[in-house]
Automatic annotation (TrEMBL), chains A, B, C, D:
Ion transport keyword on record: yes
Compartments reported by the entry: Membrane
Descriptive protein name: DUF1211 domain-containing membrane protein
Organism this protein belongs to: Rhizobium oryziradicis
GO molecular function: potassium channel activity; proton channel activity
Reaction(s) catalysed by this chain's protein: K(+)(in) = K(+)(out)
């Protein structure tokens, strides 16, 4: 199977997921700035989910460069990941409309935990079929962020009843962890980039 | 006509079909998990339709690799298939919102039967214009799944009044049939893959 | 400017236009087939618009193959065409929800007339910049359909008060005119295709 | 990172942003042309935003042709730009539904100002990583439009309480400034185009 078409399809789904969330932002029924206040929690949730989906898009791209063959296992692991990502607008809207109440926040954390799990399954499927096992191990082997993130997600879910803002802070922390460029990863890709442009 | 642009357009439509279904999931008006219960049938229907559209995307890709020319017949057979696939969010929402009542389930089965029929018309149009008739016959000739699926669809439609859950089970069975990799198909594509990367 | 990116962007917009129309089909609030009856006019309108957008996609593709350079004129003529095409879901919904009353049908005809006009402006812009003026003239010179279609649109608009069904029939006739493969066009592209695969 | 995939993802998001705005146009509940009148301000706002997003798409394309590497800085500057662009349907709808009242117009101007700022950050990130610093400086150095636009935006925001129509006129003026082809830019790209087709 053609890897390019799998990437294009995933990009399409992610572009729609990241964009349709804005359809949930209902415009104020009045013409004053005060009318925007009820939309603020939803906007805050939207910004967080936007960053998360952007991180998934970014990581997905790096991961796919090391996929040598699109086996049925890779194809369905990818679809499984997309399935959970398509549910993120739903939990984002629920969390935002309920102004960060505990249970919607727990649902938000649960869906993103399932995205993270699905991402690891995809990584595992690509790892067993890649033609570059050393580069793959080097890039994804000591996956500290991949271990820390689910721990932080679980903490965020568990602490939702204590303080929803603490949970939101933990979600933000996970996002920041992933935005900061991973020097090890960059090194691997730049090394493999010698002599050819456009990975 | 350029095959690549036909594939890209089809991918775009399928990516939107698979994603917009989530817009139908209305978030609970309360902040408790109990509020999610009314959304469960719709979520179950969404998961089933997601898998179906993913299967169509996968099969569409394999089929198109053997299309040598995009004749007007192939172009319109493809549009016809996309038309019925765009109606799947509509029947999914109806089935889910009515909690698997018989008539919405029958409509669901009918639209997916029409998708299957449209897929066979596309397969036939590609078959008569392919430059690789032997490979095409080998890959799609003894099409057991293609015969079994409509029979199961018709059974699901017929049994909807007896038990909607039985119908849902039959739809699930069709999906499982298609998810399990088709060793014969894989063999054909791998054979034709010798010596060149990226089909 | 890169022609490929202009095509990809246009494909993306057309794929969304053709798909989001289905979001307007509101599912019945009851679980019986009778509940589908109020949706029928909208479904009929959707089918017609789907075919129209598919025709535009098809013609757009052929036209762009003869564009040698993406000048600002071509770029904005293309955006202008996309603008009117994005308004087609709006008039389709209005026509369908009002069950083919005269004025919504006239609005439907007007928007598609503006699409046709925008298409001709794009064709003119590509014609004056193409590197293959003879092939362009041969393919688009004696543009019988392009002359007949606006006449039929105007008739459909004018007759909407006499009989909405007659107007719908005329819209259907225009669609059929374009679906039937244009042998002259095919000949031009096949002639230019000698010796190279993939136009 | 692959520049092509960043472009494709951005194109996808922009195509959705430009198209979903039409979902906000609620069809009249009556069948007469008079029913369209309440939709006119929204339609006017939609047309303006459509032109703005088209300009961003166009400029984004030119800018990316000079990006040599997709560094994390370029990747996140691009996502940041997409974030503000995804909020444009929200402010467009608010401005249109409130028939150009001062505060929604100020919000509209603020979101597009943030888009402009995000665009400059992206330009700066690409500028420090480009392999063609002279061509980059030549194309984007004396950026008169880039200086005039934010001034006009700020004037539009400031004058919203004086006259909303003046603000709308200023937004229109910015759009016209950008639609008129930039001869200097065209010269740079055509010069760099000698000897190779398809930038």
């Amino acid at each position: 199977m053609n890897k390019g078409r799998l990437e294009a399809f995933s990009d399409g789904v992610l572009a729609i997921v990241i964009t349709i969330m804005v359809l949930e932002l209902k415009v104020p029924v009045e013409a004053s700035f005060a009318g925007l206040i009820p939309s603020l929690p939803l906007l805050l949730g939207y910004a967080l989910s936007f960053v998360y989906v952007a991180i998934y898009w970014n990581n997905h791209h790096h991961l796919l460069t090391l996929a040598s063959r699109v086996t049925p296992g890779v194809m369905w692991a990818n679809m499984h990941l997309l399935f959970w990502l398509t549910l993120t607008p739903f939990v984002t809207e629920w969390m935002g409309k309920q102004s960060f109440q505990p249970e919607p926040i727990m649902a938000y954390g649960a869906v993103f935990s399932l995205c993270a799990l699905a991402y690891h399954i995809l990584q595992w499927q690509i790892g067993i079929t890649t033609a570059h096992p050393e580069r793959f191990k080097q890039a994804f082997g000591r996956d500290l962020k991949g271990v820390v993130s689910p721990v932080l997600y679980l903490m965020a879910i568990g602490l939702a009843y204590v303080s929803p803002y603490l949970s939101y802070g933990l979600f933000l922390l996970v996002a920041l962890l992933w935005i900061i460029p991973d020097k090890r990863l960059v090194a691997v890709f730049e090394a493999s980039d010698d002599g050819k442009h456009d990975v």
